[in-house]
Backbone:
C-alpha cells in the first residue's frame, strides 16, 4: 500500500491543532504541524505572509497495513527532530532520523495484528500524529526455549530453540536472535531438524562454557515472518542462565568405568556396565549432554524398539538422549559392573553409586562416552549432539 500523505498548512496559529483530511479507506489522522509565525494573513486568506504547505507521510496506513516492514515517516519540508512510534501495548519502536533530517525509520518491523500511533516532531517545533493498524496474522509461530529462565546449568548446555511451525526464513530469524555473555564467549547458531521433526536452532560456544558465565538470549522476533507454512512471530522471547562449575562425566565403555571430573580434578571413579555391544542394545558414544534428571521412572523396552525385553521402575535416571539412553541405577545388573557391558543401551551403576552421581551432576554437564563397544556416535539432534561436530562444521550450520 502506498504511503498516506498528510498535507498541512503552517500559518499564524488560530488554534493549537488542525486536522488533516484523510480520504479512501485509510484511518490515519494527523494533527497539523504547528509553528509560530509572524503577523499577517493566513494561507486561507491568501496573504503575503502565508507559509507553503508541508507534507508528512507514513509508509503504513489504514487498518490492514502489511506487517513485517519498518515504519517510515517522511517530512517533505524542513527537518525531523524525533519520531515516536508506540504500539497498542505501550511498547515504543526505536528508530533513527536520516542524515538529511527528512526521514525516520524504525529499527524493528511492524508486528501483525497491532495498532500503532506515530508522533512526529519537527525541528521548528511542529508536531503531527498518525495512527495505523496491521492486519492480523493468518498463522502464528511460537517457540520453546532451553535452558529455562534463571537457571544454572552445566558447561555443555547449548541455548536451544524448537519452533512450533516450519522456519523457511532461517537467515532472517537468526538475525533476530541476540546472545550476550558476561565474558564475550565466542559461539555460533546451528540449524537442524529436532528429534520431534520440528525446526530447531542451537547456539553452542566454540568450547565448553567458562564456569560463572552469565548468558542472555533475546529472541527479538515480534514482527518476523517464518516463511511459507510457518506463520508470524507476534512476541519477543528472552531467557537468562548462569553456567555452573566445570563438571565432566567420563564414561569408558571398554574399561567399564565412570569418572566424575570437577574443575579438572577427578572426584570419583565408579564401576559401570554399558550397552551390550554388537546390536541395537549397544550404547552411543560421543560427547553428549545431561538433558534432565528424572528420578524414578518406568522404562519399557517397546518404547525404544526393543520388543518386550524389559519393563522396570528405574531409580536415579539421568537422560542423555531422546532415543532413551540414560545413566541410572541398575542393581539387577550388579554382577557385570566394572567387567562387562550387558545393559540394553544405558549406563548402569550400583544403586549407591548411581545415587551419588545423581546428587552431584547438574543438567548441562557433559557425559563424554568413549570406547569401541558402541553402535556409533550420538546424532546431532538426538539430545544435544552438537559437541560431536568440529567447530568449523558447527559454524557451517548457521544460516548467516
Residues:
Amino acid at each position: 500500500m502506498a504511503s498516506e500523505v498528510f498535507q498541512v498548512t503552517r500559518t499564524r496559529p488560530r488554534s493549537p491543532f488542525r486536522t488533516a483530511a484523510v480520504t479512501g479507506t485509510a484511518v490515519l489522522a494527523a494533527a497539523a504541524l504547528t509553528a509560530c509565525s509572524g503577523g499577517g494573513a493566513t494561507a486561507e486568506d491568501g496573504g503575503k505572509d502565508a507559509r507553503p504547505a508541508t507534507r508528512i507521510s507514513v509508509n503504513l496506513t489504514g487498518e490492514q497495513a502489511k506487517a513485517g516492514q519498518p515504519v517510515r515517516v517522511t517530512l517533505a519540508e524542513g527537518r525531523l527532530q524525533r519520531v515516536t512510534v508506540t504500539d497498542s501495548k505501550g511498547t515504543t519502536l526505536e528508530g533513527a532520523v536520516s542524515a538529511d533530517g527528512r526521514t525516520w525509520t524504525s529499527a524493528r518491523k511492524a508486528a501483525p495484528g497491532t495498532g500503532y500511533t506515530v508522533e512526529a516532531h519537527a525541528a521548528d517545533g511542529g508536531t503531527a500524529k498518525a495512527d495505523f493498524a496491521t492486519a492480523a496474522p493468518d498463522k502464528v509461530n511460537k517457540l520453546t526455549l532451553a535452558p529455562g529462565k534463571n537457571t544454572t546449568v552445566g558447561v555443555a548446555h547449548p541455548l536451544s530453540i524448537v519452533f512450533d511451525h516450519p522456519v523457511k526464513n532461517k537467515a532472517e530469524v537468526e538475525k533476530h536472535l541476540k546472545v550476550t555473555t558476561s565474558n564475550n564467549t565466542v559461539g555460533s547458531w546451528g540449524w537442524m531438524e529436532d528429534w520431534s521433526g520440528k525446526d530447531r536452532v542451537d547456539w553452542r560456544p566454540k568450547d565448553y562454557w567458562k564456569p560463572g558465565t552469565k548468558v542472555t538470549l533475546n529472541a527479538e522476533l515480534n514482527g518476523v515472518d517464518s516463511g511459507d507454512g510457518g506463520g508470524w512471530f507476534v512476541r519477543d522471547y528472552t531467557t537468562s542462565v548462569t553456567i555452573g562449575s566445570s563438571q565432566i562425566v567420563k564414561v569408558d565403555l571398554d574399561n567399564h568405568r565412570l569418572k566424575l571430573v570437577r574443575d579438572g580434578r577427578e572426584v570419583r571413579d565408579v564401576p559401570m556396565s554399558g550397552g551390550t555391544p554388537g546390536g541395537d542394545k549397544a550404547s552411543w558414544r560421543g560427547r553428549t549432554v545431561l538433558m534432565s534428571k528424572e528420578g524414578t521412572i518406568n522404562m519399557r523396552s517397546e518404547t525404544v524398539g526393543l520388543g518386550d525385553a524389559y519393563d522396570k521402575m528405574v531409580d536415579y535416571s539421568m537422560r542423555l538422549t531422546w532415543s532413551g539412553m540414560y545413566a541410572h541405577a541398575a542393581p539387577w545388573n550388579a554382577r557385570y559392573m566394572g567387567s562387562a557391558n550387558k545393559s540394553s543401551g544405558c549406563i548402569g551403576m550400583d544403586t549407591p553409586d548411581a545415587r551419588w552421581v545423581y546428587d552431584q551432576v547438574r543438567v548441562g554437564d557433559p557425559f563424554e562416552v568413549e570406547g569401541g563397544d558402541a553402535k556409533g556416535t550420538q546424532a546431532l539432534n538426538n539430545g544435544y549432539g552438537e559437541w560431536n561436530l568440529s567447530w568449523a562444521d558447527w559454524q557451517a550450520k548457521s544460516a548467516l
Residues 4-53 have pLDDT under 50 and may be disordered.
